[in-house]
Amino acid sequence: MSKFTKSNREETIPSVKLFEGERGLVITGLIGFILSAGIAIYLFFQGPTILPEGNVKDAFSFNAAIGIFMISIAAILPLTKFAARKRRVIRWLFIFASLYCYTIETVQNFRGISPRFSREGTVVDMMAGILFGVISLLLVILTIVLAIHFLRMKQQHDRSLLIMGVRYAFISVLVGNFAGIWMIILQDRLTGDGGNVIILHGIAFHALQTLILPAWLLEKARIKDEIKKSLIHISSIAWMLSMLLIGIQTALGRTVFELTLVPILTGVLILVWLGTVTTVFVFLINLRRTNAVSTRSGILKERDILK
Hints:
By secondary structure, this protein is an all-alpha fold. It has a domain at 14-153. It is built from 11 helices and 4 strands. The protein has helices spanning 3-12, 23-46, 56-76, 84-110, 123-152, 160-186, 197-205, 207-210, 212-218, 225-251, 261-306, and strands spanning 49-50, 54-55, 190-191, 195-196. The strands form 2 sheets. Strands 1-2 form a two-stranded antiparallel ribbon. A two-stranded antiparallel ribbon has the order 3-4. Strand 1 and strand 2 form a beta hairpin. Helix 2 packs antiparallel against helix 3, helix 6 (160-186) runs parallel beside helix 10 (225-251) and helix 7 packs antiparallel against helix 10 (225-251).
């Protein structure tokens, strides 16, 4: 292999790899999945309600959500290029906050006590709930720190497409944090006759998968950079507008599942996002087919030469 070919190949390999050095965060995320799996077995045999106010189904969904969130943070934290000490501090704050959240959400619900807004628990339970709120605010602060850092990063990053997706994702996460603070102020997740803030909270946080995954896949697609950027912008803006409409519908105290104008527009925007993601997959499938055909052609030519 010539030096020129070798250098070209090295240039195409990103210098920053996803998940690099973040084993602790990955393990923390997997703990959430393990807890959710165990709770799912319990739910199958016993059901969700534990009197006086526990709901094991909430622990199931919460642990799974935190698990997904931690694994997503583990994937993108190497992209920050933080100094080792700063990255270590952020990593361990995320781990500590997640482990406390797993513990309080699971233990309290199995004790029949609401982990956040208990009206039946002791003073200790109420103090644990207050600390839960403080830890939740710590997670909000950490995500804001990461959001500001990614928004201020220079465009010359060697994974600029992925950074673009991460930036949009963190804007959505900030919306999810706002929804979390909204629930703390309400001391509940329900508002009005049918509004449910947890829907906005949960969907907004899933941008760490729904907006980052297409950007990551587009890195591998052999199409013009302008088309790649356009697909990321279209899918991300459609997603953000859908979050805005969900927030408006929730603030009106109405469910997002009714067949009225705002939920219908939300559905249309989510379909736009889904359409762009599908387009990315089509590009990749075509790329694999092209590579397969090229490989076969090369093998046939080699056979002809040997003959």
